[in-house]
Amino acid sequence: MANNEDQFKKVISHAKEYGYIFGSSEIYDGLSAVYDYAQNGVELKKNIRDYWWQSMVYMHQNIVGLDAAILMHPKTWKASGHVDAFSDPLIDNKDSKKRYRADVLVEDYAEKLVQKAQKEINKAAKRFGDTFNEAEFVSTNPRVVRYLEQKAEILSRLASSLDKEDFDDVKLLIEELQIACPLSGSKNWTDVKQFNLMFGTKLGASAETATDLYLRPETAQGIFVNFLNVQKTGRMKIPFGIAQTGKAFRNEIVARQFIFRMREFEQMEMQFFVRPGEEMKWYNHWKEYRLNWHLSLGMGKENYRFHDHEKLAHYANAAADIEFNFPFGFKELEGIHSRTDFDLKAHEEHSGKKLKFYDPELGENYTPYVVETSIGLDRMFLAIFSNSLKEEKLEDGSTRTVLNLPTVLAPVKAAVFPLVKKDGLPDLAKEIIEELQWDHNVFYDEKDAVGKRYRRQDAAGTPFCITVDHQSLEDKSVTIRHRDTMKQERVAIADLNAMITKAVSMKAWLKRS
Fold this sequence. Notes:
This protein is an alpha+beta fold and about 525 residues long. It folds into three domains: about 1-75 and about 210-395, Bira Bifunctional Protein, Domain 2 (BirA Bifunctional Protein, domain 2, 2-Layer Sandwich), CATH 3.30.930; about 85-195, Herpes Virus-1 (2-Layer Sandwich); about 395-510, Rossmann fold (3-Layer(aba) Sandwich), CATH 3.40.50. The protein is about 40% helix and about 25% strand. The strands form seven sheets. Strands 3-9-10-16-13-12-11 form a seven-stranded mixed sheet. A hairpin with a 5-residue loop joins strand 22 (about 475-480) and strand 23 (about 490).
């Protein structure tokens, strides 16, 4: 566990050192759980967003985009249930004075049981080698069976207690499991209380006439209230989807783990409208499709798993998370939910406007059911960044820090170096930059020895380094170095653009999914 904590600290410091993420308003000592995306971070974030948009919108003729306003009529949040039910169960430790989400404390405990079971599995796999039957071992080994049964019992009881809003039992569960405050080790807990997560604000010129509004806690409602507008103007037929990316705001009391849980964050969501009765078919379709999208980035199938929800939200009849193995363990990266017809019916009721669809094939009006895919862009950023940061031992005994981001997402695709700052080499290097920058984000660097420049670009995540030398002046060729293999090859300047384009092409990467 200590190694994972050390790795996470490296991720956070590397993100700052190489211009990916800064603490917000740092010169004023910052603002807790609010971050700014720096010059490289904003590029990586944009590339992730584009990769998602390409896959979800451009690759589907029946999915279109939307950019709804952050501020919405206050009745929206009454209809959606956020005013009455959007809250977290919180618990304070009396000794450390720190506040925690009670459900997260229990879930973290359950995850440790899974890790203990995995340790036993890994030991057995090492011991038995090729003859190891993992499925049989998991179902028969007493320790593994006990750990996994304990985990299931704990999460089932937690889900049941939260569902009934029996917060006394949630506290009792924390006490029975002897869960201690991660900061102080104290087990001296307060009662569990609910806390609404929406940020309030005002709309209007004077305090007397101002309307109470909320900053949206999710982007989905902007899609639901525009359902009929999009359907009619786009002449959309069921099934069809509306996709959106944008900021959402939650007054998280327990914001933590860097950009994993923030108060201001960005979501990438798609709401897919289907015929009633067909929602489970589409729910399973989108589960598979979204997992394949993640796998297309090549970050290792073993780092993903599905987690089916024990406790369903009030609007859902099925829900699963795609969890990713972050440095602090498996946590939710994306949610796929079958939301039934709850949202459209609720907005119909509160607005008095009809939100039904006339299906010409069936010859009837109905309220569509909805299947949602929702991914946190900031969490996706953290998953990619933390998975890509590596320390490598080289053949000569030295080490290098490399950020081997998927090339399709890398902020800078190529860095161009003149070997020396004279003899016309900088001029030719700048000519190459001027040609490449039409299609790619490229970077010029002439400071320090070439080896040092290579190391800087490795750590920044740049896939290609192009060195212009004296031979380049004679035969119009350059040396291109590949970040991941460190191999170098001689390439004609005229072929550079095509070579880089092929390596970073969204089409080539997405076709893996």
